Amino acid sequence: MLLATFQNVSKYYGAQVVLNGASFQIYSDTKLGLIGPNGCGKTTILRILLGHEPPTSGLASLTSGTRVGYVPQHVEYDEGETVMDHLLADHARVAEELRAQEDRLAAATGDAVQKAMRAYQRARDVFERTGGDHFPERARAMLDALGLGDRCEQLIGSLSGGERNILSLTHALLAEPDLLVLDEPANHLDYLGVAWLEDFLSKFRGAVLVVSHNRYLLDRVVGGILQLQNGKIDAYTGNYSEYRATRLRELMAQQREYEANQKRLAKLEALVLKMQNIAQGHDDTTWGKRLKARRTQLERARAEAVEKPQLEEDSIKARFTAEASQADIALDMRGYTKSYGDLSLFEGADLQISCGERVALVGVNGCGKTSLLRDVVERGSWENPVIRVGPTMTIGYGAQNQEILNHEGTVLDEIMNIDYTSYGTARSLLARFLFDDDDMKKKISSLSGGERNRLQLARLMLQKPNFLILDEPTNHLDIPAREAIEEALSDYEGTLLVVSHDSYFLDKIVTRVVEARDRKLVSYPGDFSTFRYVSGQLFEKATGRISTRRKEREKASDSKRISKNRLAQLEISIERGEARKAELEKLVIEAYSRNDYVEGKRLSEELKKVAELLESHYEKWFAANE
Q1: How far is CA 123 from CA 101, 120, 340, in A?
Q2: What is the pLDDT of residue 559?
C-alpha cells in the first residue's frame, strides 16, 4: 500500500536551491534510509513530506488515513514538565474538548440540540481514535517497554540526551503509526542504546523513513537507500553496504564511459583541426562544407558528452602525523579511582596501552568515559603513580563538547595561535577542513557542532601529537567526513585512545576494545564487532527491554510453583553453568588472541547460550528465595 508520495519537488530559500525535482515513494512494507552530506536538505524533505512547510513546486502528500509518528532531531521540551504529563498533553486537550461538548449538549434546548449532538459526536470520535479512556494505561505500558517505566513522574529537565530520544520515540509510537519518520534517532544514545534501537526498528511492523549517519544502523534496519545529492534523489535497493557497492560500480562504469567519450572527442577535435588546415589550402567549397559538418558534429558531441563522475564526495582532507616516540608504554593506569560526591565511577581500575596501539573505550552513558579521558590529559605524567603517561608522549586531545576551543575567538585565530602558524598555512589547513574565507572570520561560539568538531581535528593535524585521545570525534559529522577521518586515522602511526558510539567507525580503526563496566575496565582484543560477539549477552539485555512489570509478575508466578527439590536442582545447575561460563570465557579470549576468528565466533555463540541459561536459572532461584 502506498503511504507517501514525493513527486518532482523543488525547494528554494531565496536564491539557494535546496531541492531540485526530488522524487520517491514510501510503501507500507518498506524501511528506507535517507542519506546525504550535512546541509543538503534531508530535514527539509521530512518537513515538506509531513506538511510542516510547503514545497516551492511539486507534490508531497500522505495517503488519506496514514498515521505518522515523527521524531525530529531537536525536540523542544518544557523542562519543568513530567514525563507522563508530556505524553498525556495532547490527549488531555482532546479529553477537555470532549467534556466541553458534553456540557454544551447538556445545556442545549430546542433547535440547538441537534447541532450540539453532532459536535459532541465529532469530539467523541476523536477521543476514541486517540486511545479513549485507555490512553494513559497504554502510555505507561509503552514507557515500560522502552525502558523508561520508572521515569513517569520525573521532570524532563533531569533526563539524559538518550532518555529524551526514547521519550520522543515513545510519543511517536503512541499514535500507532503506519509510518515512522526519524531524524538522527541515534544521537545521544550509548552503544547499548543504539543496539536496542537497531533491534526495535528492525522488528517495527510499519514503514520507516530514517535520516541517519550511523552506517551500522542503516545496514541492520533498512532495505533501501535514498541518496540526496545536488537537490535530487537517487533510490537504491538494499542496506547501506549494498548501496555503497552499487554506487561504486556505477561510478566506475561512468568513469570508463567518460574516458572513452573523451577519447572520441579528442579524435573528433583532431579531425576538425586537420580538415580546417586542408580547407584553408583549397578553393574547393566541398572542403568547407565538410568542415562545417564536422564542426557541427563536434559541437553536438560536446553537448552530449558524459559528465566527469565525482569519484570522491566533497569532504575534509585530513592526515594525522606523529612525532616519533622512544617509549614502549603510552599509558599505564593502575588503581584509578574516580567519584563525584556519592557517585562512584571507577574503583581501582587498571588500563595499560602500549605505544602504537589503537584502543576504543566504550560503556553506557554516564559511566565515566569522558572523566577518565580528561584525567589522562590533565593529570597524566610519567611521575604520576596512578596515571603514568610515557615520557616522550605528546598528547593531542579532541573533546566531546569542544571546550578546548576559545569560543570567543575566530576560526582563523584558533589555528594561527598554535606555534605562531602563518596566515597562509592556517588558511590552507582550514580549507582542507571545508572552511572558506568567510568561515575563517566567524566566532567559534557561532559555529555548529559539526564545524567545531572539524576545527578541533584541524588543530590536531597541525599539532602532530604521537598520542591522540579523541572523545566522540565523529559527532555531528556526515558520512563522507566520517569516512575521511577513518582513512586518516587508519594511516596514523601514533597511539590512539578513542571514545565513540559509532561502531562502524570503531571497526575500521581499533584493534582492542576496553569496556567501562561495574567501575572497572575490561579489555577485549579485536575490533568492535569482535567485542559484540564476545560480550553478546550484554547486547541481548539491551535489546530485550520488555515490560519490567510483566517480568516481575512472571517471576512471582514462577516462585509459587518451584518446590524445595527444584530449588536444589537449580543450585546445582547454577554451579555447573558458572564453571562452564568461566571456561568458555577463557577459551574465547585465547581464540581471538591467536586470530582464530572462526573458533572464537563458535565459542562466543556457545558462551551466549550458556550465559542466557544461567541468567534464567538465577532469576528463578532469586524469585523462589524471595
Answers
A1: 7, 5, 52
A2: 45
3-state secondary structure 461-517: HHHCCCEEEEECCCCCCCHHHHHHHHHHHHHCCCEEEEECCCHHHHHHHCCEEEEEE
Alpha carbon distances (Å) from 138 to 88, 144, 147, 329, 499: 10, 10, 14, 56, 37
Q: Which amino acid is at 539?
A: F
* Cell numbers given for 558: 514462577
For the chain, the C-alpha Rg in angstroms (whole number) is 31
User: What does the pLDDT look like over 79-120, one tens digit per residue?
Assistant: 788 888 888 888 888 889 988 988 888 888 888 888 888 888
What DSSP designation does 41 have? S
Q: What is the dihedral of CA 400, 404, 409, 415, to 10 degrees?
A: -100
| Distance of alpha carbon 435 from the chain centroid | 24
pLDDT at 490 over 60: yes
Instruction: Tell me which CATH code domain 329-531 carries.
Output: 3.40.50.300
**Mean pLDDT (whole number) for 262-270:** 83
pLDDT at residue 131 above 80?
Answer: no
Instruction: Return the number of other C-beta atoms located less than 10 Å from residue 558's C-beta.
Output: 13
- CA distances 399 to 86, 332, 434, Å, are 33, 21, 20
- Cα–Cα distance between 27 and 206 in angstroms, integer? 9
Higher pLDDT, 388 or 612: 388
Q: Which three cell numbers stand for residue 167?
A: 521519550
Domain parsing of the chain, residue ranges: 77-154, 244-303, 329-531, 547-625
Using CA atoms, how far apart are residues 622 and 626, in angstroms rounded to an integer? 6
- Asked if the model's pLDDT at residue 25 lies above 90, the reply is yes
Residue whose C-alpha cell reads 582484543 in the numeric block: 525
- Comparing 85-89, 417-421, 544-548, the range with the smallest average pLDDT is 544-548
